[in-house]
Amino acid sequence: MNIRFYTPLVLLAFIIFAACQQQGKARRKMKVRDTTHYTKQEYIDQSLDSNYINSFLASNHSFDSYDEYIRNFYRKRDFHYAWIDKDSLTEQAGNFINMMKNDASYGIKDSSLMNPELQQLIDTLLISDVKLKRGDTSIPRLEMLLTAQFFAYGNRVWGGLTADSAKDLEWFIPRKKIDMESLLDSMINKKSNAFEADEPVNRQYKLLREQLKKLANLEASTKWDSIRIAQKATYKKGDSAAVIAVIKSRLEAFGDLPGKDSSTRFNMALDSAVRYFQSRMGLKEDGIIKQSVVDALNTPLEARIRQVLVNMERLRWVPVEPPASYILVNIPEFKMHVYDSGKLAWSCNVVVGKPGANTVIFSKDLRYVVFSPYWNVPPGILAKEVLPGLKRSGGGYLARQNMEIVGASGKVIPAGSINFSKYSGGNFPYIVRQRPGGRNSLGKVKFLFPNEYNIYLHDTPARYLFGENKRSFSHGCIRVAEPKHLAQWLLRHDTTWTEQKIDDAMNAGKEKFVTLKEKVPVYIGYFTAFVDSQGKMNFRDDVYGHDARLATTLFGTK
């Protein structure tokens, strides 16, 4: 995939020339306009005939989805032009055209990015290098095509796939909403680079787009052979080998190793560069070159570009501005990030659902902290693990697992009074729960954001799993490496919850529910390409195969 970047200098010259021609002309007369929806700006003198708008929309069915938006836009501006002022395109028309061309060159391939007829009209104007003339039939058509194109472009590039398509791809975070009419009115009345500054996209989207440029430039300017090392070979600081020089060159191209070094010795600078690269790829940061490092270095740039494009698509769906304080769990990163007052406060490792027991992608508000919790065994684990154990040894199994059986009233039922052989997971009428304590599967505290998926954050007695590099081991819930820290952060505004009180509650052996005074949004996301808080471009493995399915939707191939 060769992606070329270019700046339409001819278009820029045309816009500047046209703007200069308008200097010194009489000030335009102010028009009365509908300000209930739009900003208070001066109209362009020229107006469209409402019948022309009707005719245009009736004969251009590719814009049927935006028919009413287009009519409303012109109706509320008394049918005055938005993109053409007397004999030239406005500055913002040029900015919008440049944006569409740049997005196409970044690798976002979609017919909605530039209507062929619009492209032809613009090219004709640029090639002929003449001004528009009043009465020219191409003027209203160019005006209408630009407006219709804005809605088509915004829907695709800023809105992305439909909500139903996203749900089919197992994404259940509510979609952002864009008021395209107000956005268009605002953008065409601002100067300079308002189209880029005012894009209704999350900041992470813009960061990824900048990285996409770098990757595309790198792909266009380089041609690499695969790096090969002997099976099970490793290289560390102090070693020498011919392949080390090749690895240095690759890391230099990626920006992980500063300067130029063609030597074959594994020096301190290379050790630091390898660790830096490992951190960006989610690999174990040990400074050792082994097959996992080489595999990441050998990943084709085309594949990385597609990975960025897939994650840019996901970022079209998320809120433009997240709440001031929230929690983000990024499943492929196996990390939880806590944001406080608009800034990253802290992060920690998490364990997520294993493939086949996927952690669901969704968002809800965290409402409760539960100290010394019971663990109510969910139906799937009850059927596959607990009931078989009960059928084998009944009360003995319960004792070993520190469990008990309760009825609907919460009263404990003796295991000897139940004939387990006649039950399956689907018809078992009781609740099996694990008592609070150090061996409880939820550890000493859990954090509830009520949802239909029965997923929550919690502590765990299996602390060793947080040391693993890839941490997909749970049945779907999310185990947190620093549960006490999370409890302290959630209760930070309640002075009665001191560190000692939290410690006591976690070790009380008696369940205690605490309702938060302020709910905290929790986002369970799935991003395999992202720019971290230090500005590093990160890539992660597609642990659940969601990237592959989304890539098929976007590009038609895996």
Helix residue percentage: 25-40%
User: Separation of termini?
Assistant: 14 Å
The side-by-side strand order for the widest beta sheet comes to 3-4-5-13-11-10-6-14
Report on the biggest sheet.
8 strands, mixed, barrel
- Overall 3D form: globular
Low-confidence sequence ranges: 1-41
Chart the SSEs and their pairings.
Elements: H1 9-22, H2 50-59, H3 67-76, E1 84-85, E2 88-89, H4 91-105, H5 116-128, H6 138-159, H7 163-168, H8 180-188, H9 194-197, H10 203-221, H11 242-254, H12 268-281, H13 291-298, H14 301-315, E3 326-330, E4 335-340, E5 343-353, E6 362-371, E7 375-376, H15 379-393, H16 395-400, E8 403-406, E9 431-434, E10 445-448, E11 457-458, E12 472-474, E13 478-480, H17 483-490, H18 499-506, E14 512-525, E15 529-531, E16 537-539, H19 546-555
Parallel strand pairs: 3-14, 5-12, 11-13
Antiparallel strand pairs: 1-2, 3-4, 4-5, 5-13, 6-10, 6-14, 7-9, 8-9, 10-11, 15-16
Helix pairs in contact: 3-8, 5-6, 10-14, 14-19
What features would you describe in this structure?
The protein is α+β, with helices and mostly antiparallel strands and 558 residues long. The protein has 19 helices and 16 strands. An eight-stranded mixed beta barrel has the order 3-4-5-13-11-10-6-14. A three-stranded antiparallel β-sheet has the order 7-9-8. The model is unreliable at 1-41 (pLDDT under 50).
